[in-house]
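Re-run with default settings, no changes from the original entry. Doing this only to confirm the output is reproducible before filing.
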Amino acid sequence: MLDRLNEALEHVESHLDQQIEVSELARIAVTSEYHFRRLFSALAGIPLSEYVRRRRLTVAGAEVLAGERTLLEIAVRYGYGSGEAFARAFRSVHGVGPGEARRTGASLCSQPRMSFRLVVEGSSSMRYRVVEKEAFRVVGKKVRAPLVHEGMNPVIAEHIRGIDPHTAGRIAALSDQQPEGIVGVSDDLDPSRAEGTELDYYHGAVTAAEVSEAPDDMDALAVPAGTWAVFESSGPFPQALQHLWRDVFTQWFPSNPYRARPGPEILRTRLTQDASRADAELWIPVERTGA
């Protein structure tokens, strides 16, 4: 899998002055566009679109300093419709405009070429199982929240604090299957998974699809039947949970014949009394790659 991802990155490098289609990168990597975006973001730490932008402006910066083409020629070469648009993008990466950079020979920033490799540490194993699950619903309270990679998510934390004990008890009573109890469900995430992009967060319970309408004061999410990879983790809260997401995409997916498929991600968390540690199950919708 990593070899195919690196082939896709080679394609990016050879087409920086052309339109780069994610569908072509996914074809080279022999995976879906959805999984390619997710996997790249998890491995690289930045969205694919941002990496391509930085690489283009790195190469463009070298051409600006070389002085062999006009600034407008460079702008058009790297996909900018005007000199003004190019100047704004150039300044956002390099901290200086292209004209000033050429006049003064300013120092520019560089986005290095990326390549991926698997580092096998062998210090711990990842516990997981694969589950075939019938269609179900998530019923509970929903909020639109920003994605936060490290630390507590203040919007989600405030949302949970705002659910009174009686309502929380009603939600818990709806649970009739795994994962049991109240769960956190993330849905409609941006494919880039960039910090600050938004998602739908449900503080709810997993219940049978054929159950009658959800209570009027609650939100419901219908989830079709499919395959799920279920990962177990224990550790400091919330860092261990956030690292679990990272490890699934940077370690488990490259080493196993599965890829992510569209669908909600479900986290079942049980905190210690002082809320310093947590035991968790993370449910990720997957499909076999056929490898």
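Confidence is low (pLDDT under 50) at residues 120-125. Strands lie at 127-133, 136-146, 182-187, 198-208, 219-223, 226-236, 258-260, 265-271, 277-288.
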